[in-house]
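Team,

Forwarding the record for the chain on the shared tracking sheet. I've put the sequence and predicted structure together so nobody has to dig through attachments.
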Amino acid sequence: MAVIKSDQPHVREKNNPVSKRCIFLTPKEAAELLRLSKVTLSRWRTEGVGPPYNKFGHCVRYDLFTLLGWADDQTRQNTSQSANDSRTKQRDAAWFKEYGWR
């Protein structure tokens, strides 16, 4: 799993009030966190599926909290449950409200 060190340039300092929203992971770190390959994340970006990401110039970065929210959204109770399930939308709304998003 990815280890995030505070001296990494893409991680904001703890005393910064927006630091909760500014922990950016590289595609390699995001893939390690999700236990996927970098190739899978790259393919998903091309196909328009997968977790949301940011682009800074040519650099792709994944916001940690958005990535964790997306991963939580992938939870299913059975194989016939879709991402459009109303329970999933309610859970997402509660999560984003709790963490001050949207």
